[in-house]
Amino acid sequence: MRKRIYSEAPIRVKIEGPVVNPGVYTLDAGSNGNDLIEIAGGTLPGAQIKTEDSILEQPLEDGQVLNLGKR
To answer: What is the CA radius of gyration of the chain?
Structure first.
């Protein structure tokens, strides 16, 4: 069994959906979906995020795409 190695290197992730500034962002390792939403300017007024809140609290991985639903 391979052990996952935690890296301090920044990660690049993409956010799509009802956020002010969707796109690709560079974040610190260990950042989560809530951090990404904040960096992307927050959600649009009246946006209904279809992703479970618990998913937004999990650490993001380099190259991940976080899709929050239709814009």
So the answer is: 13
Neighbours of 23 (CB within 10 A): 11
Tokens at residue 58, please?
């999990």
Dist. CA 33–CA 23, nearest whole Å = 13
Q: How confident is the chain (71 residues) per 10-residue block, as mean pLDDT?
A: 65 96 96 96 87 82 92 76
Q: Are 32 and 57 in contact (CB under 8 A)?
A: yes
Q: Which residue has the tokens 């301090």?
A: 8
**Greatest CA separation for the chain:** 45
